[in-house]
Structure formats: C-alpha cells, structure tokens
Amino acid sequence: MTVNLLKRLESSVEAFRLTLQTLQTKLENTLSKIEIFKKTGHAESFDDLSKAFEDAEEDEMELPDNDDSSTGGKVQISLADMDLDSWEFDLRNDLTIFTELLVEMRKITPPDDAKLACLKELIAGKLQKPINPGNRKVLIFTAFADTAGYLYDNLTPYIKNQFNLHTAIVTGSDGCKSTLRHSYDFQSLLTLFSPIAKEKALIMPQEQAEIDILIGTDCISEGQNLQDCDFVVNYDIHWNPVRIIQRFGRIDRIGSKNTQIQLVNFWPDISLDDYINLKARVESRMIIADVTATGDDNVLSAEANDLAFRKDQLQRLQDEVIDLEDVKTGVSITDLGLNDFRMDLVNYVKANGTLDGAPTGMHAVIGADPEKGIHPGVIFVLRNTDHGVNINQQNRLHPYYLIYININGEVLINHTEVKKILDRLRSACKDRSAPIPSLYEPFNRETLDGRKMAAYSRLLRQSIHSMIDLKEEKDIDSLFTVGGTTALLNTISGLDDFELIAFLVVRGAT
Q: Which of 48, 142, 352, 506 is deepest in the core (most CB within 10 A)?
C-alpha cells in the first residue's frame, strides 16, 4: 500500500490527494461504526481483505478493492470478534497521518505544480517547433484516471488560449470529453485525433474540427491506430514495460506519414524514486522483454541497441536463470521485500556519508530479546570472494552472506533467509547509536579486548560449514528436480572463500 500511494504521488499531486481523501473517508466511517458498537452493542461486520492483499501483484496499479468479489470469497468478521482497542488505535494513527498529509497536499495548487509546469513547457515547445512540419498532435498517457482529469482541467484553458487547439480526454467508455461543441464517444474522439489513419473523412464528414492534444489512460494503449501523432508523453511510468511499448506503439506504426517520432518519459523525482525504485525496476524489465523478443523493443534506452551489450545479455540468458532485479549489474536488494532496509541505508548515507572507508571486522554487542526472536549468539556478515558460487541464486545478497548462529553452534537462521536476519538486526539496532556498557564491558573482559576470540572463530567456522552443508543438501535435492543439477557447479569450499565484514554479538542478561 505504501508503494501504491507513492506511485500515485509520482503520477500527480491530484491522484495522491484524491486517494488520501478516499482513505480518510473510509477510516472515518469505520471509526464511526466502532464508536456506535461501543455505545449500543450493535455489531456490524467487515470484509476480511487479507486474501485480496495476499493475491495482489506487488506492481498492481490499483489498491485491492473491498468490493471485489474475485478475491476468492468474502469472509465477514464481526466487530464483536475483534480486538477493537488495538484496531481503533491503529486506525486513529493512520487517520492522523492522512489528515496531516491532506493539509499539506491542499497547499499545492496547479501554479505550484512544477511537474505540470514542465509539461506545459514541453507541449509549448513541440507546438512552436514541430518535429514534423505542420504536425501539432500530442498524445499524453497516464496510469490513473484522476491524473488524466487533473491534466485535462489544467491544460485545456492553457492550450485553447495560447494555441487555439482542441483537447480531449479518454479514460474508458464513460470518461470521454473534449473542448468541441458536440459530445463524442471513445472511438469518435480517437478518430478526430487521428483523422488520416482512422479515415475521418468517411466516418465523420460533418465534423470539420480536429483534436490535437489527447490525454488518456492505458485504455488506449493497445490496438489503436493513432499514427497521425508523432509525439507521445508518458506523464507517469507504468510498472510493466510492455505497457510503455504499447503506448509508443500507438504512433510507431506502419503507414505513419511522419519522418520522425518522439517519446518523452517523466521519471520520478530522485528522492521519491529512492522509495519506489521505479526507474531501475522498469528499465530492468524492459531489458528482459528486449533480449527475449525481437531485439528492438527497448524504447527507454539506446544502450540496448549496442551489439556488445546484447551479446552479454544473451550469454547470461544462456548460462543462468536470470534474476529480474539482477539483470544489469551485480546484486540488487531493491525489491520490495527488502526496500525498508535499503531506505535505512540510503538515509544513513545521506546523513553520515558513504561507508566505503569503513574497516572490516567491526563489531558491536547488543542485548537478547527472545520476544522479538533475538536470542544469544552471533550474527555474521561475510563477503564471498568467489563470485561464481551463487550461480543457482540461493542467496539474494550474494556476494554478501548473513548467518545467525547461537552460542552452542546451532544455526538459528541460515544464509538463505536474509530478510529474517535483517528484520532482527533492524529491530535490535535501529536508532541506537551509543554502545551499552553493561553488555560490551563483560564481552571485552572475556575476550581480553578482542585478543582472545577463539570461541567466536569457532562459531564463524561452524557458520561457514553450515552453508556448505546446506549447499550440498540443495544439490542433492536438485538431482531429483527438472532443469538440471547444481551439484557440479562452483561450491563454497571453506573459510578461505570468505572475508569477515562485521559481526554482532547478542548477549543475554547477566
């Protein structure tokens, strides 16, 4: 939900504002029902939406709808069966945040909207200096109908007053309007926008005017001949690169009279993209679509046309099962599952500078907290020096490895479950900058200030051996699965394969 809300903010202030208003209203209604139940005992039921969120694609453009019956059947939960105090507390916290955000968002009027101003300048530049003589047509795509409506309301008077051109909006069969005198349906507006390709002279001979600026959602991103236009603007970027190809494909068609066509992409602000990581994810997916298709589908990067680059990508497809987030360069921890940790790092680096000069072998001592799954032991952070050992993609952070082992040498969390270890690290260490004397002083005495580390060296060896055992176990399993075995690929051989980056000692109360 966080990423979906930020995606709306990336699209337009209006889409974000309207979504916040909807969520605010839903929260107020729910809190009202809780209040009535506490006063009268009349228990209403709520749909259990957990199934909808379980099945939702991480890149879904729309939030799961509580009226959607396609989520496998509704489960009704009565207020009488809920922990109302906890739920009400969380709802009120959310409501406070949404209310404060709305107060700030309402301060941003269209004249303050830098993205909208940039679009106006872009359109003005294209109309004043067409890339093809006499062609004034511009096709603007957005993923959200709210954004499309916002653009139509704010661009229409500007385009009419400055250039005396007609504008239209298409957001589906029920979302069509234009600045023309008559009302037209979906297909009629597209015909007026692309009169040559859609043979307007035969279909609509009575209408003399044309539409030059068309704003639409992805309802027109497939199967429409709009090649009269030579200029496509992606006001926001869809998660799915195929949609971007389809959008550009409306004008990149056989029969176009234009000698040149152009695609303009509005990428997110850098600080916002730190959170949603849209640019890297879409570009990576575009490369995958490109190397597995015709080889000329990438409309985002000229790099894809380089033969050496393509050869490298094809070689990787041949040699290994390519990872979606790892398609361009080494390891990436930017997928949504690890995004919170990535943002912790981004914010730390912004505040304190890079960690490139940090020495290896750094360590700290923290207290155990069994309720949070933090038991006495050691969490090791290792870097593998042989980059070939992760060929079967078992470790998401390769060449870095995390492993959590207790003081008896038993592995609590193995190296393939990095998120579990990172969750515990985050819970134990976030916002703690000062060492804890009651924990590090006994540790220093026991280890003679780091000179007597035999016990921890033993745990380190056992950690690495556990990774070898796990690798061999998975190799054996691979012998009985379709797709080949990993048993003959490069393996972790021992301590020499690793460099100790850092470790965290977890001590119980003394």
A: 142
Tell me the Ramachandran region of residue 431: left when phi exceeds 0, alpha when psi lies from -120 to 50, beta otherwise: left
Superfamily of domain 110-270: P-loop containing nucleotide triphosphate hydrolases (3.40.50.300)
Cβ of 127: how many Cβ atoms within 10 Å? 19
Cα–Cα distance for residue pair 473/478, rounded to 1 Å: 9
| Alpha carbon 107 to chain centroid, angstroms | 27
pLDDT at 274 > cutoff 70:
no
Q: Token match 């969390």: residue?
A: 413
pLDDT at residue 489, rounded to an integer: 41
- pLDDT of 166 > 50? The answer is yes
Q: What is the pLDDT of residues 411-434, one digit of tens each?
A: 999 888 888 888 888 888 887 888
DSSP 302: G
What is the C-alpha to C-alpha distance for residues 364 and 351, in angstroms, rounded to an integer? 21
Expressed in angstroms, the distance from the first to the final Cα of the chain is 42
373 vs 44: which has the higher pLDDT: 373
Q: Cα dist. 4→21, 64, 275, 418 in Å?
A: 15, 10, 11, 25
pLDDT digits (tens, 9 = 90+) for 1-25: 777 888 888 899 999 999 999 999 9
Pairwise CA distance, residues 44 & 60, whole Å: 30
| DSSP per-residue string spanning 170-198 | ESSTT-EEESSSS---HHHHHHHHSTTTT
Q: How far is CA 177 from CA 15, 55, 124, 378, in A?
A: 19, 35, 22, 64
Where along the chain do its domains lie?
Answer: 2-105, 110-270, 358-507
pLDDT band at 109 (very low <50, low <70, confident <90, very high): very high
